[in-house]
């Protein structure tokens, strides 16, 4: 029902940035190599995501807007080894329940579909020629949930949240060319050539990227690698630390503390490194199904991982003889 979708929307769609996240994750799951994102007024007026992925077959388009209509879990085991980003089939129904949405989508060599859904109701649907891929346009987000609108922060804060999400998705998918435009101004552009350092440079600037050093270390269970800033190049905010767990951006306070511990006494109090850390592990050691937005994860053998991370960073920084 539309009501159930609105309730679920409260969990999945807190703010414009959550819509951007869900739409871009769908584009990633569809195998896209190019994803272009545009927002107007921090997404409150409009969010557009264009991808060149698989597209949705004409006879499945309506289904995609129904609750729990995920096409991504085929066997029970998949729930325990989630490889795709989305797997609940809640995002699209939630978004269309609180916005005015159009989607144009086509699979290869088939006529495409154009559909208009507002407040959970399908208003129009027709065949429309288009190239393979999907374009979703979300207008007037939260038009029917004014309470939600009231809780949003300033336009700058909401735009910062969108930038943050897109940055992290670009960092975790270096093979995809991303662009992000806000009110016609380009904020990010990545090449999609698989080069993590180039993506870091596009996000944090050439100078910051130049001053970061790479490291890599592994044990029987984990492989950690990435780029960290030297102690002199630090920030006043912890927002500049990203963890990519099997290619997925995650939040984990213990890992952040372990990273900082790796700097020992070289990091000034209240300062944070700039770091992008990739962690590879057996998917069975991760439980991603902790929260609908899937950023918080539980990791088995977390102590061991934290020690490995601290030790690798410590050793790498010691090498610089500061
Ligand atoms: P989930 O991602 O959890 O499966 P969503 O509600 O986000 O659920 O999407 C529903 C379904 O719509 C997806 O399973 C997928 O089949 C289809 N879909 C959504 N967006 C796209 C896209 N950009 N390209 C191809 N298919 C898409
Ligand atoms: Mg999804």
From TrEMBL:
<comment type="similarity">
    <text>Belongs to the DNA mismatch repair MutL/HexB family.</text>
</comment>
<protein>
    <recommendedName>
        <fullName>DNA mismatch repair protein MutL</fullName>
    </recommendedName>
</protein>
<feature type="domain" description="DNA mismatch repair protein S5">
    <location>
        <begin position="200"/>
        <end position="318"/>
    </location>
</feature>
<comment type="function">
    <text>This protein is involved in the repair of mismatches in DNA. It is required for dam-dependent methyl-directed DNA mismatch repair. May act as a 'molecular matchmaker', a protein that promotes the formation of a stable complex between two or more DNA-binding proteins in an ATP-dependent manner without itself being part of a final effector complex.</text>
</comment>
